[in-house]
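Lab manual, section 2.4: Encoding a predicted structure.

Procedure: take the sequence of the chain (95 residues), apply the prediction step described in section 2.3, and record the output as structure tokens. A sample record is shown.
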Amino acid sequence: MSDRIWLEITTVCAQVGFVISTLANFVLLSLLVIRPTKALGSYKYLMISFCIFSLFYSSVETFLRPLIHMYDNTIFVMHRKRFQYSDLTARTISC
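Recorded output:
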């Protein structure tokens, strides 16, 4: 399979994953906030924080479009720019 086709497949899968993640987390957040139950207790706040962090990280992943390459015990992360910004900004965002 050529590299161009593989990049298209990963781009489409990332977009589909972002939509599914966003919808699922918003549904879970709305259920946790709208339907108060005493049975969940303080676990409810932990679930809310997980949903918020998941929304944040999925939007960062969609913004950066990372490519991760692993070889032996080395991980190499590259990202494909969506917008034209400086190299310093790109390094800061990927960190």
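Check your result against the sample. The beta strands are 66-71, 74-79.
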